[in-house]
Amino acid sequence: MSKPGEFVGSLDCGTTSVRFIIFDKHADIIAEHQLEFPQYYPHPGWHDHDATEIQVHAEQCIEAAVKDMVAAGWAADSIKVIGITNQRETAVAWSRKTGKPLCKAIVWTDSRTKNVVAHFEAKLVETGIEVTPGEWKKGKDGVEALRNITGLPLSTYFSAIKLRWMIDHYPEVAAAHEADDLAFGTVESWVLFNLLGGAATGIHLSDLTNASRTLLLNTTTLKWEPSLLAFFGFRPSILPKLVSTSEVYGKIAAGALKGVPVAGLVGDQQGALVGNKCLKQGEAKCTYGTGAFLLFCTGGEIVKSSHGLLSTIAYQAGPNAKPVYALEGSIAVAGSAIKWLRDSMAIISSAADVNDLAAKEPTSGGLYFVTAFSGAARAYTNPSHIARATLEANAYQTRAIIESMLLDSGAPLKHLKVDGGMTNGDLAMQVLADVGGFTVIRPEMRESTALGSALLAGERD
């Protein structure tokens, strides 16, 4: 006889794979399933995803994890609600009528849009933004106005730039835009659209954390900004309805979880912030992967950075709740530096070996590791010094970002919670604490991103 359960599911749509994880009320994992999906690099600097493949893999992961849960003796209806977390900024364009993608999705890492950025940088200087009717800001004032509205700079990174490129280069997208048939969204918006019935129901939503990465959201009013739609040349009809990170958006239309509500949406880095319980001012998390993403919770007030950090929305715990904000900084080279020691320097055979090698020396022997590999000479021959200097370089970069966050926010750091592959090394985390001069907490639950969306879904308004 099957056991009844009270579980929450999390659909984690990452950059290279999709996972569905089923949590119990203690945040223990009951079942999970993960599938990688193809990456497309048609030209240098281009990085595409097939949005349909992401959706198909998501559905397959749900079915497989539920099957495993049932095989373990749990009732099929044990999952009461699910949340979704996702790679941010990746832009998806689809037809409202057919529910099908109009082109490949452009991934957050893609850099083909440099000319688009240059065009809008020039437009910002020469024409500017109409911040209120009849009031234009241009030049340096225009640049500042854009940051004040969105918390972001013009960059290839953010979704609006990618969408503009799609409209300019794909006739199908341009035609749909003109015909009011174009639906634009980031990955959570696309996946949710399909889970809730696709074109038949037409539910087109996006949460504030993902919307805050588009260059189109006014992070003060929590609404799409008309002046930026005009600036980029977008029709308002393309945009999803804005929702909080924790409320019921609808029920799954088909499959093993038919009828189960979806009630949590959150971008992956903000999901990790929530999953690590960094919910109050002064609490921070850093996810160490190929690069590293550091988010510092600033509470209920937007903090504008004077040190090049991004101001973003951390979460909104229900449609009637006040949003919580964060400062974000990133490190381009973190885990990839260790990979370089393995693949190019050949001083370790696996990434895990870096901690043991670095532990052979108490210091780096005066060696500093600069994360700029081009043209670097192999002047040092002590592998242990090199390994330790690599760990220290990561720690110094983290400390520099945190120092900027403290200056911008005026709030003390309570602690830094960490997750990601690099955090498995005890020495790496001890070096981080020693160099940083702050408390580093490594939670037992490492699936913080997925847990974050599950917590938001479970606490739905």
From TrEMBL:
It comes from the Eukaryota. It is an enzyme of class 2 (transferase). Pathway: Polyol metabolism; glycerol degradation via glycerol kinase pathway; sn-glycerol 3-phosphate from glycerol: step 1/1. Its EC number is 2.7.1.30. InterPro entries: ATPase_NBD (IPR043129), Carb_kinase_FGGY (IPR000577), Carb_kinase_FGGY_CS (IPR018483), FGGY_C (IPR018485), FGGY_N (IPR018484). The keyword Nucleus does not apply. Keywords: ATP-binding, Glycerol metabolism, Kinase, Nucleotide-binding, Transferase. Residues 284-458 form the Carbohydrate kinase FGGY C-terminal domain. GO terms for cellular component: mitochondrion. GO terms for biological process: glycerol catabolic process; glycerol-3-phosphate biosynthetic process; triglyceride metabolic process. One of its GO terms (molecular function) is glycerol kinase activity. Residues 9-275 form the Carbohydrate kinase FGGY N-terminal domain. Pfam families: FGGY_C, FGGY_N. Belongs to the FGGY kinase family. This is glycerol kinase. It comes from Mycena venus.
